[in-house]
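Entry type: protein chain
Record version: 2
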Amino acid sequence: MRWPCLLSCAVALGLFARGARGDEPTERPVRFGLTSTAPSNAPLVACGGDDALRRAVEERLRRPVFGEDADYTFTLELEEGGARARIVGRDRAGAELGRRDVPMPVGDCAKTIDTLAVVLAIMIGAPRTIVVPVAPSAPPPATSAPQPAPRRERWSAGPTAGFVVGAGILPGASWGIEGGALVRTSVPWASFLVRGAYWPRRPTGERRLAVVDRLSFAALGCAEVLRPGPFAVDLCAGADVGRLHANTSSLTRASQSTLLLDAILEGRVAYRFERRGVTVEPALAVQIAALLQRDRFTYRDVDGRQLILLQPAPVAFQASFGAGVHFW
């Protein structure tokens, strides 16, 4: 009975190895496979083939033992001449576990099936179970709802610089350069923006009686309202204070400078990406400003009349493009 012992040990080792891999194991009965490589004129084929042999084995063991998804497969091979059958036991990987030669009765189907059924029933032996892992549950489907950003543990600040264009304060359409700092708070959606801007000299009107430049400083509080992936959409509000300066000899004012004060509302779209531990954030911003203080520059014509040389509009618009760098 050495061959059945080897087979039982192999089955037991296989069951142990399979059970050790499961996070949440469960048990089910061991099922065996039976295949035949007998030629068409072999005695077993004439006596009903594999199906007849399976039924005979299960009748002797009084339980189902064969299945399509076999844990170990017995291969039944019949030698030519029909006088002897060789039973080869293999595991699911095809490795041979052992073999046994069985003398075959000649011309008697009942004895042929019965002889092979007895040998196979002894090899299969008592009922056994196999421990199999339970398939892990599928992760919950991803939702399109934005997940809350992790809370920052500290504040940080990074420099910003950009190019700005606008209308409503200096004559016609004008441009300038700006620089400042973007301050990130410990609240993920809140930040502050402080910046200064210089707008170079612009001539006034068609007569070009003066040139005017602008210097201003702004402070804004920003709230992140949308974050689709690496993009961020912020709404900002704050105030801007500055100085307009005119250079001409035709002014009738005692001073050539005037105060400028406005309340601003700004929308920003930024794209954030990492480069070697540094976050770079190009941004496009659009701004509308309500001027609270807008003094005018005047001059006298040849007839002595006092005329307006420049007065900012009640509402001004501007757009800027720049980039910020954050060191975390």
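Comment: The first helix runs from residue 2 to 20.
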